[in-house]
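Following the same procedure, sequence and fold were stored together, as reproduced here.

>
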Amino acid sequence: MIEHLKLLFKDRNIRYNRLENLIKILKTDIECYNYCVFIFEKEKCFKDLKEVLIHLVDGIELRKCKTCGKNILFEKVLEYKRHNREINHCDRKCAPNNFNVEQAKEKRIKALKDHNPFSREDVKEKIRKTNLERYGYENVSSNEEIKKKKNISLLKYRNSISYKMKMLKSFSKFKNYVVPAFTAEEYDGIFKEYKWKCVKCGNVFTQKLRSTNHIKECEEVPRCLKCYPFLNSGISNKEKELSDFCKQFYPNLTENDRELIAPYELDIVIPEIKLAIEFNGVYWHSCFYKDKNYHLMKTELCESKGYRLIHIFEDEWNEINKEKLKQIFENKEVIIPGIYPRTWFNLNDKRYSAITYSEPILMNNNCYDCGDIKILKVN
């Protein structure tokens, strides 16, 4: 079963993947999923299924307390392992109370004095006097001339072909996944984008040097999105659900449109019925990140282009609003005079005559709406 799990999560860095994504992969094999749940319930030392997978796939062994014999929390085992230390007790109650802090300090200070002469006060004083005589400062690095010389030397070294060759050679650690598609002369520091060629599919792509965390053996490998695509591509599950729902009625809709009200983005645009839809996450669209009139501004921009904009907040995506959207798509929407939220209704709709009724207000989810309109008469 463990070998099966290792194959299932091959080339996946479990520690840097979200729990939801791991469970999604795990549920593709129901036997593996049930086995992980069984281990989770049996050992009673795991916080979640992600820790179970780290234990089984990465081979991190469980530790038992030497005093009480219970399993030590796996979270603590990982923490100690990260610092190359062993944990033998589950908590302070079980740990032997024979550690003398003062004695440990004295031992450490003595070891430093014996092996490091620069920790001695007489040596430190001599260095300070010498620096004052030669450079006018106790600390050499405070001298402006020394600073300039250091910077010039460093810049000269980093622009040298020997340094660039050395850096290009260091990328050989990526050789099983990608190879550089640029020369040593083209290398110009870690903040520039470079071309890489994927060993697996031959795809040439551009990317900066950074931690991508998709290969557990080497976290800095540039990521080929053909072979290692993002699971959610930055889109929440609810937003994808909304998009899929709309595609049932209008399969040729446009997603992430930046042309209608440029430079602003609209999540969904349906030109056939002149309708746009915005899916607003309650965190990034809250009053802490978005201005009071942000959502209203987008609505008014769409109205100026002859489009109706519907705002659906993350916590409002439910069966009721699905039915409302369905009625709009099937042209079965019923409108009577009254007060309606401007997050759903256009002020300039030709089907009725309306006026602005209220300004944007702060809702219970800490997001501002677009205010209300009052429909006076249906045409």
Remarks:
- The beta strands are 178-180, 194-198, 204-207, 254-257, 266-270, 275-280, 308-313, 338-341, 352-358, 372-378.
- The first helix runs from residue 2 to 8.
- The two ends are 67 Å apart (CA to CA).
- The chain has a mean pLDDT of 86.
